[in-house]
Amino acid sequence: MAPLTYTCRAGYVTIQVVSGDITEFEGDAIVNPANTLMIMGGGVALAIKRRGGAEIEEKARRHAPVPIGGAVATGAGRLRVRYVIHAVCP
């Protein structure tokens, strides 16, 4: 099954929402649903770390603790995006 894509444009910004394997995405950034300590130990975070490399978690943890609602951007290691945005969810 092909990934489903939704695109929204607002001025000079284009946001694309794609369903599929987040570690296969090619573009500017992906968003990791993070915890306050930036530990990438399970779920989506672990998949990102396994595919992109442990340096993603190492860079994110330098900013810990991050409050709920906060976010940190890091490089993406071996992923085919420029950044991983670690958004802290409740």
UniProtKB/TrEMBL annotation:
Segments crossing the lipid bilayer: none
Segment forming the signal sequence: none
Pfam families, alphabetized: Macro
UniProt cross-references to Gene3D superfamilies, sorted A to Z: Leucine Aminopeptidase, subunit E, domain 1
All residue ranges annotated as the Macro domain in the record: 2-90
PROSITE patterns linked: MACRO (PS51154)
Tree of life domain: Archaea
PANTHER family: GANGLIOSIDE INDUCED DIFFERENTIATION ASSOCIATED PROTEIN 2-RELATED (PTHR11106), MACRO DOMAIN-CONTAINING PROTEIN (PTHR11106:SF111)
The protein's name: Appr-1-p processing domain protein
Species annotation: Thermogladius calderae (strain DSM 22663 / VKM B-2946 / 1633)
